[in-house]
Write a structure and sequence with these properties.
The protein is of the alpha/beta class.
Length: 948
Amino acid sequence: MNTPDFSCVITAGEGGEEALAASLESVLDQSLRAVEGLVVLPAGAPAALRTAAGTQAGRFPDRVRVLDPGTDRVASLRNAGLDAARGTYVVVLDAGERLQRHACRNLWEAGTRTRADLVAGGWSRLTGDGTKELEPSWQQTLFARSRTVTRFTEAPELAVRDALLTGFCVRRAALERHALRYDEDLTRSEVLFGPLVAAVVGRIALVRRRIVSGRALPDAGRDLAGLVEAHRRVSHVLVAQGLTELREERDRAFLLDHLVPLVRTFPERPAAARESVAAAAARVLPEVVPEPVLLTLPPVERVGVRLLERGDADGVLTAAYALRRRNVVAAALSVRDDGRVFWPGGPDPVLDVTELGHQYRPFDELKLMNRVTRYEARGSRVLLAGRLVLPSHTGPGPDGTLTARLEFRVRDGSRTFRAPVDSLRPDATGISWSTGIDVTRLLRPFGPRDTVWDARMVLEDGRTRSVSDLFAPHDLVGPGDRSPARPRLGRTTGDTWQPYITLRDHLALRLEARLPPARTARRLVHYATHFRPARRMRLVLRALGRRRDRLRSRGFKAAVYRSWLLRLPVRKGSVVFESHMGTCYGDSPRAVHEEVRARGLRLRSVWAYADSTDGFPTDARLVRRWSWRYLWALARAEYWVDNQGFPQNLDKPSGTTYLQTWHGSAYKRMGFDETRVRLQNTPQRERLQRAVHRFDHFLVRSGHDERTLARAYRLPERTLLRTGYPRNDTLLAARARDETEGRLPRPALAAELGLPDHRKVVLYAPTFRGGPGKRKRQRPLFDVARFAERFGDTCTLLVRAHYLEAASLPACPPGTVVDVSRHHDVSELLALSDVLVTDYSSIMFDYALLDRPIVLFAPDLDAYAAERGSYFDLREKAPGPVTATEEELFAVLSRLKTADTGFQERRAAFAEEFGAYDRGDAARAVVDTVFARHIAPSRTVPAGEAGR
C-alpha cells in the first residue's frame, strides 16, 4: 500500500482476541480503502492474543501491522503506534472500539474540505445492559451540525466534557509539528491527549456523524487517582488558554460525569471494594472539588460527592440509595432551629438538603429507607435485621403502641404473606429491628406463576402507617442463604427460596428448582410448551390475540361506526357533551350543559370521559371515549357539543347539529396557518378540512377570532355565532360581584383548597409545550421552591398544567404551592385568583375580563414566535408586564401593585379587543340559538339578539 489516508492504532489488551478482532474488522471494512491498522501489543500479552494479531497480519500484510514495543503502559503503546503511523490522519482506538462503516470517509472528507488538523465526531459507549449502547447526552449539542471551530469557546463541550476520548482523527503532520504525545506518566492519558491537541492545532472540524461505537463503560473506581490527575492537567490547559470560566464548567462536568456515577455504583460493589474506593477518594479528592462548584449540584448529588471526598463508604452507600430511588429519605435528616435540613455529617453547607422538601411531608407520606443489615438462613428459618431511618422532624406517635410486620408480595401484587417483627428498638435517628421467620411455612406459592416475591415492612403506631421497601447492598445475600420451599402444587414446581437484591436495590425472594425432581419437572414443562404442537398452538393464540386487539382498535371501531352505526336513526333530544377530549367536566360545554339543566329543557345529556368519571355530573349518562357506547351515543345524538374536536375519523350523522364552542382565542398560529399543517401531505390536510366542515356552529368572542380562527380553519360565515364563550359568563359575574361587594369572602373553592383570605392567590397556567404521545410531566419554567421560599408567607401559588400534560412539582411548605391541574373547571380557578402568570396560553384572553393583574413569563418568546408563528406582537399588546427571566418575574410579583398600575388601560383595551362579544349571557344565547326547537315559544330569544 502506498501512503494510506488513515492509520488506525489499536492498543490490544482488555477484552482479549474477540475485542481485538472486532476493532480490526471495523478498520478493514471501511468504505475508504486506503486505511491501515496498527495493532500494538503490550509486553504481557497472552499467547492467544499474539497469535490472533499475527494471523490478521498474515492475512492482510499490506494493511495490518503488529507492533511490540515491549511495555505495558497504555500511553507508551499509543505513542509507539503514533510513531509507526504512515497515514495522513491518525485514529487511536482501544480494543473493542469499532469504527462505523463510513467513519474514515466522513473524517477524510471533512478534513479535506476544511483543511482541519483535528476532525471529531460522535461516539457511543456500552451501558452495562448487554450490548446496548448510548451516546452521551451532551453530544447532541456538540455535534448537532457539521461545522469548523478555531477556539474552545466556539465548542466548549470539547474541553468541558471528555468529548475527545475517541471518535476523532489528527493530521499526522500536526502531531509531528507540535510534538504531541500521550503523557506516559499518566494512566488516563486519553483524557488529556484530546484537549491538548485541540488547544494547539489551528482548526477543528466537527462532523455530524457517529464515528466510533463499542466504547467500554467507564468505571471511575478502577483508577480514580489517574482520572483525577488527568482532570487536573486538562484544567491547567484551560487556565493556560485563559479560559477560567470553562475550567469551572469542566469542574462541574467532572463531578456529574465521573464522581456522581461512581457514587451510584456503590450498592453493586462488594463491601471491600466500597471501602477501597472510598479510601482512594479520600486521598485524591480533597482540594480537587471546589466547594462553589459543588454547591451548584442538586442536593443528593453534592452530598454523595462530599461523603466520597471524606472517604465515608457507608455514607456514600446511603447517598447512592437516595440517588437510585428518588424521594426516599435515606438518612436521618436533622432540622435546625432556622428550618434548614441537613444530611448527617456536621454543619456543612454542602450537606444542606432543605430543597428536597422532606420536612414538609407527614410521617405516613414519607418514603423511608429501611436497610437490611442481616440476612442469615438456617434451614427453613431466616434471621433478618435492619434499620429504618427517621428524620428528626417526624416519626411515629410517642403515645401509640409501635408494631411492625414484614410483607412478602408476589410481583404482580395479587397475593401477600405477612409475619410480625419480633423486636423494635427506636432511638433518636431510627428504629432498629430484628425478627426470625420460617419462610418454608410462611411462603406458600402455587409454584408455576408466582415465583418472585418482594419484601417490605409496614410500621404502625395505632394512628399512622408507614410502608418501606427493604433495601440492601447487592453482596448481602448469596447462594449460601438459600432456604427450602414448599409450593402448594408440590415440590416438583420449585424447591428452593433464593434471596437476591433487585436492580432497584431491594430484597426479594425467587422460587427456584435446585433438586432433581423439580429440575426434571421444569425440563418436562419446557419441552411440553416448546415442542412443535405447542409452538403451533402459541402461534394460533397469538393470532387470536391480534384479532382480539384489532376488534378493540380505534380503526376497526371507526369502520363499524361509518358502515353500520351511522345508519341508526337520530334520537331526538339527545346531546353528547365532551370537554378537552374527555379529560374534564369543564369549559364552555359545561356552561352550556348547566344552562340546559337550569332551564329544565327536555334533553338527554351524555358526557364523554377519557379515564375517570370523578367530577362528572351524576345526572347525565357517562360513556368512556372510544368505547362502543360512546360511538353509539355519537351516532344517535341530535346534538354534538365540544370545545376541542370529536375524533376526526368519525363522521357526523346527517341529522346531527354540531356546536363547536372552541377552547380559546389565538395568539399562536392555528389550523391551516400552522407551518406543521402546511407541511403535511394532501390527505392529512383534507382529513383536517373534513373534520372542520362538520361544525354547524362555531363560537367566536371578537373580531380577532373571526380574522384568525375562522380564517385559519376556513369556516363559512354562516357557522359563526358571535356570542362570546359561555365559560366566561362566570368571570364577568365575578367581576360584577367584585365591583359591588368586594373580593371577600372568597368562593367556596378556596376553602376546599385550604386557602386563607389573607393570602394572595397566584395562578400559574402555561401553554402546552409537548408533542403528540403519552401524557408527560412538565416542570414549571421557574423554580417553584424559590417562589415558595420568597413569597410563601403572603402568597399561594396554584399550578395549572395544560390538560395534555401534568405538573412535576417539588415538595414545598404546606399552603404555598398547590397543584390544581386535575381540577375540572379552570374558570373557577380564574375567579379565585388574584393574579395570573402565564406565557402564550389563551387563558390570558379570558382572565383579562376580570380586570386583575396579569404577568407574562415568556423566557423563549422570540424563539417560540419564530417556530410556531403568532398573530400579533405580544410585547406590544401584552395586558401586563412581559418577563424573560425568573428574577424579572419575581421582581414584578414583589412590587405587583406598582408594576400593574401602568397596565390597567392596556388590559382594558386588551379585554375589549379580544373579548368584545363576551357580555355575560353567552350560555343563554347559545342555548336559545342551538336548542331553539326544544324551548317553549314564549321563552325564545329573537335570533338577531342571540347571534349578535
